[in-house]
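Lesson 9: reading folded outputs for more than one chain in a single document. The general rule is that every protein is listed as its sequence immediately followed by its structure tokens, and records are never interleaved. Here is the first one.
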Amino acid sequence: MSMKKKNIKLIILKIGMLLCLGVGLYPVITQAYTYYQTQQTLNSYKEKYDEASEKENEEVFKRYSEVNRKRKDTEQTSVTIPEDNNNIPSNGNLQKDKLGELVGEILIPKINVDLPIYDGVNDFQLSAGAGILTGTDYPTGGIGNHSVISAHSGIPNKKYFTDLELLKLGDKFFIDISGKKLAYQVDRIKTILPTEFEDLLPVAGKDYVTLMTCTPVGDNSHRLLVRGVSIPYQKSIVEKEKKKENLKVKAQMNWYPIVVVGVLLIIAVIVIIKKIVAKRRGMKNEE
């Protein structure tokens, strides 16, 4: 009886160790899966405009530009900032009809961000990537335009804009919209209350894109604004920024912990099973 109790305790201990290992592995797996999903979405987006004719892509771009022009004609004086920018759909399903249109891609090499941009900031859109704040311009570039792109911060398996606070003046980010590529350089960083919208309005003679996320993480009482001013787009600059921040290597290394921990988990399971089988055989031989 005493021996059986010891064996039960040993089994419980080993199961507990496996559970702890699984809990430790979960955030790594979910983050890697989110990265995989995001890249699949971006690949589909790129394939779509690659397969479309130049005329078709131009028509889409003109449609966005026309919406911006009409907005200017209304002499917009306010923008509504959502009260809480960190709601996640409880069912976890990113319904296509709730996602709406995928407008483009935003790349921020400094903080290893490469996200799809959706037309809006509902819970489903912000769960799948970044979104254009309703009431602000599409990021088409052009004098007098001011687009505000928002994304989550502080979600364990979805870093998105969590590291936005690490950006400094002079850092660059890049936008792709219907195949047209734009570049922006950070010229201002500011924290505001959700009721303060003045910094999100268009500025005459300027072409701005502002990146926005909740801050501080977990509290979400304020909004962090990282504004970029338009600069000439050069492919060499993009490649230089990617290389400088080692974006591709970082992305690949996200898989290394999964492989290592996964192998360790398999080995641990095999060892435990062998020990349990050996002990049972030993007990039978004693009987």
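And here is the second record, again sequence then tokens.
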Amino acid sequence: MIGKKDIVVLARSLIDQNPNTLRRPESYLQHIEMTYDIAEQIVKNVLGHYPVIGLHPREVAGAAGLHDIGRPMQGDQTFHELRGAQYIEDHGVEKGVAPSERQVSVIAQMVRPHAFVYEFWQDQACREKRKEFEPFDSVLLLPRTWQESIVAYADLSIGKGDKDGQRISVQERMRVLIDSYTRNPERADPAVARSVIKSEERIFRLAKRVEALEQGRLSDRQIDRYGFL
């Protein structure tokens, strides 16, 4: 299973192949490393409470580190989640993501439903951009397992600006995103802003579940119930 150092090497190679797609490549690399670390720590904390839950730190952390692997591939990063998952499915064994096609597919699906991609897919402003991936079942854009939920949570737990690189609450991160996409002239995008706002309630529910799992506050029945949504 791919580790953090190899994920960074892979990400750097994609940046080198597409040198003008990211404005701040070093910040991007820091983000994927932090996401890896947070996901790995969450799984270790969960296993401390639930030793037989069946989560594997290296697998979930690997998916978390790869969650934005689609970003360097294209200047227009709309649906980078899907582009990254597709790249993993197509090249994962070759690139050492995992030793088997089945494991690669599992990791690709952990990558696919992060952030607010489900709401963005539904937005009519993205109708033309959806065609790159159609036909496609949008249900795959909702986290349905604990692994997918932890990856999505870890991505939204990293601060920006004066809290760059720090673990913060998902609620705080969502406030920053809404502010960025509605008030920052360089990033203002009505479709993204609508999608972030529309996703808030869903993402806050996800965060609440992951935090309860990490803190050992769920019964076995709740773990089974919430793990497949």
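What the second record shows: The chain has eleven helices and no strands.
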